[in-house]
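Open question from group meeting: does this chain pack into something compact, or does most of it stay loose? Before anyone orders reagents, we agreed to write out a predicted structure and look at it together. Recording both the input and the output here so the notebook holds the full record.
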Amino acid sequence: MVLNDSGIPRYRAYIIYGRDVENILKRIAAFANGCRNIVAESSLRSIFSRLCEDATYVELKDYSDVDRVILSYEEGKALVFPVSSPRLDVHAIALIPIDKTNKLRISRGG
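Structure tokens returned:
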């Protein structure tokens, strides 16, 4: 599911833009030191499955689900999901490190 990017500022997060979503996901996997450290929104499964076998998938309906995932997974992983893009011909993928900073921001209410 594509979430609106309006919830991103409450996290230490990145949005990666590009025309080739597979290339974006390859770069994210390299940043995360492999797919075993990726927690991806289930809509990305078909693309990630071509890149690797050991990513974890979750359903994200809104930012309360994002908070739940960040709080429930161990530090060192990266949450990845599509967000709305300002252009129709460009993909936008959010990358939120699951780390102490983001866990603390959520526990303090953003």
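Observations to bring back to the group:
The helical segments are 21-31, 45-51, 63-72, 100-107.
The first helix runs from residue 21 to 31.
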